[in-house]
Structure to design on (435 residues):
């Protein structure tokens, strides 16, 4: 019987060595989770029982469990490298075969899909044609690498202050080439349907107490007729408190809306030819079909220098992909050379009621099993799911010093069990030698 007991001990020590060796060999494997050999004693059983103090029958390998404690976060230079800080697994698809991993090596394939280093596609929420996230529909994440189409300017918001201490200009009429004919000016780029930039310039001319003219040129030309240099004019009136009286705004060139904003309609985007002097004509593009809605309702007239405190417009030229960013909730942003950014999708994570029940399949991946239960899929930082760290990888959670000590212990166990067999062999030989 001692032979079998010693043999079971040798097998257990061998299993322990194998598990420890596997841990050591994967100490540098990103996303790897160390394993632990768990043993149980063995007792012979019979129908009538075996007494209160039976002799043991050896040892067996009860289970090899994995420890899913957090590994260290190591920062890299790749924006698509991702690490999970907390619970959860990345979800990947290999032609429909779903796997789960903590290894965050990701990049893009030739079709723009986000894939790991084995070509498995990362799963997440995609976006529709308008850039809206399709929450609840998990699919392959794809980065749109095509150039971003331009957008014509349709809105323009400004906040500025006109100096109430200014005098009416000494030179009249208004001439954009003569600074003495206006009090202040500012310029903003606006865009046509082909993404061409045009300079919209506003010249402010004080006409009396609390009254101003806002003269507008685009590329130094009349907005509706590029052969002319006459501006569009809006008549602005301020209250005694220095606030714009939106109800008193008038214009023969702009459309004045009930909310005090003004619309620039029928703008003809133009460009000069190579003649000397150049001849201006339509450049073949058009303005936004709705025109440009200009909101200056928050403009003020105080006794301080002219200043533009904010200006924004929603147009932009075409842009090419220049970089990617992923925030801690898994949202993937694409940055373009035109200064715009678009949501490309959102990474999802999965968690299980019993992560120990997952079946390891190699390549630092696991698959669902009956013991693990169904995956709970959600976005990072929701529920019990951890946060996502872009530009980083999670190191193996193997502690080498512990594993080296385990090697020594397993070796001693192996030697001790071999000694048990050796001793039983000597006893048996003694019995055989009896005459």
């Amino acid at each position: 019987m001692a032979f079998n007991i010693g043999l079971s001990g040798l097998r257990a020590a061998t299993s322990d060595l194998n598990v420890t060796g596997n841990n050591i060999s994967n100490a540098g494997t990103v996303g790897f989770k160390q394993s632990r050999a768990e043993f149980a004693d063995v007792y012979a059983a019979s129908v009538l029982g075996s007494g209160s103090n039976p002799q043991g029958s050896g040892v067996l390998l009860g289970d090899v469990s994995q420890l899913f404690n957090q590994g260290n976060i190591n920062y890299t230079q790749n924006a698509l490298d991702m690490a999970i800080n907390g619970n959860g697994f990345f979800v990947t698809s290999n032609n429909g075969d779903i796997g789960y991993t903590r290894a965050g090596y990701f990049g893009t394939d030739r079709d723009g899909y986000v894939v790991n280093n084995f070509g498995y596609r990362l799963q997440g929420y995609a976006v529709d044609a308008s850039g809206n996230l399709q929450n609840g529909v998990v699919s392959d994440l794809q980065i749109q690498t095509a150039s971003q189409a331009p957008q014509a300017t349709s809105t323009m918001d400004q906040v500025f202050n006109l100096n109430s201490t200014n005098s009416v200009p000494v030179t009249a009429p208004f001439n954009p080439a003569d600074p003495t004919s206006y009090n202040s000016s500012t310029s903003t780029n606006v865009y046509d349907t082909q993404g061409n930039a045009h300079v919209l310039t506003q010249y402010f001319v004080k006409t009396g107490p609390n009254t101003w003219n806002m003269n507008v040129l685009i590329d130094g030309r009349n907005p509706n007729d590029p052969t002319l240099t006459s501006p569009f004019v809006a008549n602005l009136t301020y209250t005694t408190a220095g606030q714009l009286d939106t109800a008193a705004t008038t214009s023969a060139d702009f459309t004045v809306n009930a909310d005090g904003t003004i619309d620039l309609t029928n703008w003809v985007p133009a460009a000069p030819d190579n003649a000397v002097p150049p001849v201006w004509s339509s450049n073949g593009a058009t303005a936004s079909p709705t025109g440009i809605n200009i909101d200056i309702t928050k403009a003020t007239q105080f006794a301080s220098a002219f200043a533009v405190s904010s200006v924004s417009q929603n147009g932009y030229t075409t842009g090419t992909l220049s970089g990617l960013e992923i925030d801690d909730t898994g949202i993937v942003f694409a940055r373009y050379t035109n200064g715009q950014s678009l949501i490309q999708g959102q990474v999802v994570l999965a968690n299980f009621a019993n992560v120990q029940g997952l079946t390891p399949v190699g390549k630092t991946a696991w698959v669902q099993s009956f013991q693990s239960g169904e995956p709970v899929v959600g976005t990072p930082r929701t529920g019990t799911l951890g946060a996502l760290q872009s530009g980083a990888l999670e190191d193996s959670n193997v502690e080498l010093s512990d594993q080296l000590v385990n090697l020594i212990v397993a070796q001693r166990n192996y030697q001790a069990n071999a000694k048990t067999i050796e001793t039983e062999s000597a006893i048996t030989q003694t019995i055989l030698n009896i005459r």
